[in-house]
Amino acid sequence: MPHVLRYATGEDIVGLNPHLNPQVTLALMSSLTMAWLVRYDARNRPVPELATAVPSRANGGVSADGTTITYHLRRDAKWSDGVPFTAEDVRFSIDVVRNPKNNESTHEGFDLIRSVDTPDPYTVVLHLTRPHSSFYVTFGSAYAQPCILPKHLLGSLASINEAPYNALPVGIGPFKYASWQRGDSVTMVPDPLYFGRKPKLQKVVFKIIPDRNTTLTQLTTHEIDLWNLTPSAFYDRVRVLPAVRVSRQASYLYNHIDFNLQHPALADPAVRRALRLAIDRRTILAKIRHGVGILQETVLAPGHPFHIDVPLIPYDVAAANAMLDAAGWARGADGVRTKRGVRLELDFASGSGLPDTDAIVELIRASWQQIGVAIELRHYPSQLYFAPANAGGIVYGGKYDVAIFAWLVSPSGNLENLFGCDRFPPKGANTVRYCSPAVDRAFAAFDRTYEPAAQQQAARFFQEQLVRDVPTVVTDAREDLFSYNDDLHGFHPNQVTPFDDLVDADI
């Protein structure tokens, strides 16, 4: 269909309000439809959207001591229902994040806001308790989950958790939501009130296909036009499809295996280190991911300004066994190790409809059996897997021992939301429940300075410490794959927000 883009990601969604749902799949739609102060350009740099400029010390938007941030807002922006956008919407959205009644996916940075001034309808001044160098990401960027919300629609509610708004949000973007047919599709159409460039596409349809094999079939039959973030395990199949192109580029995503440190066995660093030694990441990358990705230990990808190189830890079952022996984990009659009554029997959580992920888990199962560890694989639909903690989510609710999925790291390089001591859900995304006072101090040092050299030093420390402590195992830094019909033109995704330039695309 001319000027209609149909795409899929191989999963379902929890909801359409990014305040309550941290899925990357939703972030794609949100970058088209929701309200943001800042977006990102082709080189992953922040650029103004509803703000007239990205605040900095050079333009006077950041005070000399780094504790006052001033945003000047556009005067011609309207919500997709026609109501003018003002500074009160920004103030209200900050209050929403800070309201403990709301199931927010993160509070990072917002607890640093001492007060908010709105001296006029088009100026917002944030007074912080300390410098926050990641502010441009935290406070309303297209990467961040907390978008700007319309006060006129939500301001009278005690909580946004059950608001009808969440099923069909009103935003400010080149597109607006037209419908969400649960279990089937989400449809977006151009917003005629949008102040910026007008999309060439007349409709964008996200097709809900919670199975990767079915997604491949529909790409093959051209029932979808784009498989956004094609899993690497499908690379060899999609690149030979007729009339389908595949682009491959470095990503800010990383594939990983998480340990829930509240599990008695996984609280032992020796167990986590042994489990990492018994994961054959080279084979996973070569055989299952078809060589698409980059082996590394740290969560910040090559190409990220704060990435560091750390020597790769080899696959070594013998060393893993020796480590567990030394730590007092003895094999039982059934081959499973125990210590003080705790068995190395772990629930391994994964999304459903992911055959490539299942293959990875089975490879891990075989290796872990050799070191006396048993696993039970449990599948969950994505809308339950990534649901908020207060809504019974598996990952955010800590209802797992080991979990496998991918994270998109912040363009700022700040990892506090993923690993900070006070960022356990629902306050943040520290789903592994990791806590290190030394790492927290490095996070604070990184965020309190605007000087790149000082940030680099702090980033090196916390990346090296995370590798030592092993709350997560990075299987590889991803390379993004985009598979699309050869009549789709003008699609040039960046590494942070791949749909930010979709206004230039057409089919």
Largest beta sheet: strand ordering: 7-8-9-1-10-18-11-17-15-16
Task: Give the tally of β-strands.
Answer: 18
What's the N-to-C terminus distance? 8 Å
> What do we call the CATH topology of the largest domain?
Dipeptide-binding Protein, domain 3
| CATH architectural name of the largest domain | Roll
Helix content: 10-25%
Our count of domains comes out at 2
Task: Give the averaged pLDDT, no decimals.
Answer: 94
**Unreliable runs:** none
Helix/strand class: alpha+beta
Biggest beta sheet attributes: 10 strands, mixed
CATH class of the largest domain, anyone? Alpha Beta
- Roughly how many Å is the radius of gyration? 23 Å
Q: Can you count the helices?
A: 14
Name the overall outline.
Answer: globular
Proportion of residues in extended strands: 15-25%
- Give the CATH H-level superfamily of the largest domain: Dipeptide-binding Protein, Domain 3
Layout of strands and helices, then pairs:
Blueprint: E1 4-8, H1 24-33, E2 38-40, E3 46-48, E4 68-72, H2 87-98, E5 113-120, E6 123-128, H3 135-138, H4 151-154, E7 175-181, E8 185-190, E9 203-207, H5 212-220, E10 226-228, H6 235-238, E11 244-259, H7 269-277, H8 281-288, H9 317-326, E12 330-331, E13 337-339, E14 342-343, E15 345-351, H10 355-369, E16 374-380, H11 382-385, E17 402-408, H12 416-419, H13 437-448, H14 452-469, E18 472-485
Parallel strand pairs: 1-9, 1-10, 15-16, 15-17
Antiparallel strand pairs: 2-3, 4-6, 5-6, 7-8, 8-9, 10-18, 11-17, 11-18, 12-13, 13-14
Helix pairs in contact: 7-9, 13-14
